[in-house]
Write a structure and sequence with these properties.
The structure is a single chain. The chain has two helices and 17 strands. By secondary structure, it is mainly β. The strands form two sheets. It has a twelve-stranded antiparallel beta barrel with strand order 1-2-3-5-6-7-8-11-12-15-16-17. The protein has a four-stranded antiparallel sheet with strand order 9-10-13-14, with no helix packed on it.
């Protein structure tokens, strides 16, 4: 019977080399990988089963952090550059690592790890001889992770509709303390890279493809529970550690994508955020944590940016990239000395790009 055993082993080996139709669990996605369109405009709102995408992004935001006074929801904020003596120039550079995994046909998880390198030149940051002493800082930013589920994905070839839910959380992993404020702002040694608070974001997304053009909408709510952060400077009582309630936010992003020459596509995003009023106060115990905090006047209002992106996407090629330029249309910045993009963004322009690999 030895020959029978040998023949059985050879037959089993041939079956493994030439498998038939098979299904797999979410841990064995290669045998059930979804087909993906080669053009960016044809893509759904999730990666698809069996796909992993890793990317590294570089961005540089340059802004002047001056203020203008005004009324209405689109003004920049409270005060002016003269009253704050804040005629600074702020450079905010990000290196962001991202990972996406489509573990089922309709769902994906993702993870974002940012590193922040920032430089601040401010009229208040001068030595005894009056020379400018810019602040430079490099540190880990706030990590974000999330889950996305695509509820609807029609199969029509040139008129496809996608609808998805995205739930993500930002955890306080960045540097939230610039140092000691005793003796004045010149003693502060670093620039913060995190808010020190946990944020929860829930978005609904709709994507409608029509031939080589696609319209994409994302809207939702950002919940920002109050927390103790160590970078608030309150000069009247010379307090440094204080409590900030940054206020929740409502988001509505509108994007239009079109294929130029396959596989190059062009995308324009109109990004809108309504930020609710920011409250500040001393560090106190109790629930709610910021019940006695004082509201910053005129700190609520809209913030809008427009972004143009050129993207190279071809599923038959393992690498892709995009390049973008973003400009602030209007908005406010309620923190004068220490702008943090995630908490209180500064006006200016941002240039950047991403390189990504799929497998």
């Amino acid at each position: 019977m030895r020959w029978f055993s040998v023949a059985s082993a050879l037959l089993f080996g041939l079956m493994m080399l030439f498998p038939g139709n098979a299904s797999a669990s979410f841990l064995q996605t290669a045998t059930a990988r979804d087909d993906m369109a080669s053009r960016e405009v044809d893509r759904g709102l999730v990666m698809g089963k069996g796909w992993v995408q890793l990317s590294v992004g570089l961005s540089w935001k340059h802004s002047t952090s001056g203020f203008t006074a005004g009324d209405g929801v689109f003004n920049v904020g409270e005060g002016s550059s003269e009253s704050w003596r804040n005629e600074g120039v702020f450079d905010y550079r990000l290196i962001t690592h991202k990972a996406y995994w489509g573990y089922t046909r309709k769902a994906q998880i993702y993870f974002e790890l940012p590193f922040v390198a920032a430089t601040l030149r401010n009229e208040l940051l001068r030595d005894d001889q009056g020379n400018m002493q810019p602040l430079n800082s490099v540190s880990l930013g706030d990590v974000r992770f999330g889950w996305r589920y695509q509820w609807v994905a029609t199969d029509k070839e040139k008129f496809r509709t996608f609808f998805a839910t995205d739930v993500s959380a930002k955890v306080p992993t960045g540097n939230e303390s610039p140092g000691s404020y005793l003796g004045g702002p010149a003693n502060v040694q670093t620039i913060i890279s995190g808010t020190g608070t946990f944020d929860l974001q829930v978005l609904l997304g709709l994507r409608q493809q029509l031939s080589v053009v696609a319209l994409e909408l994302w809207g939702g709510y950002v919940y920002k529970p109050s927390g103790v952060v160590q970078w608030l400077i309150e000069t009247e009582r010379n307090q440094f550690n204080a409590r900030v309630d940054p206020g929740d936010a409502v988001r509505l992003d509108i994007a239009l994508a079109a294929t130029l020459v396959r596989p190059l596509s062009l995308r324009v995003d109109f990004k809108n955020t309504y930020r609710m009023a920011t409250r500040v106060g001393t560090s106190t115990r109790g629930i709610p944590a910021c019940d006695g905090c004082k509201t910053i006047p005129n700190s609520a209002g809209f913030w809008s940016d427009i972004r143009g992106t050129v993207q190279f996407w071809d599923i038959n090629f393992p690498l892709g990239f995009d390049l973008y330029f973003e400009y602030t249309l209007w908005g406010r910045n309620s923190m004068a000395l220490w702008p943090l993009e995630d908490f209180s963004p500064s006006r200016g322009f941002t240039a950047g790009g991403n390189i990504f690999a799929r497998f």
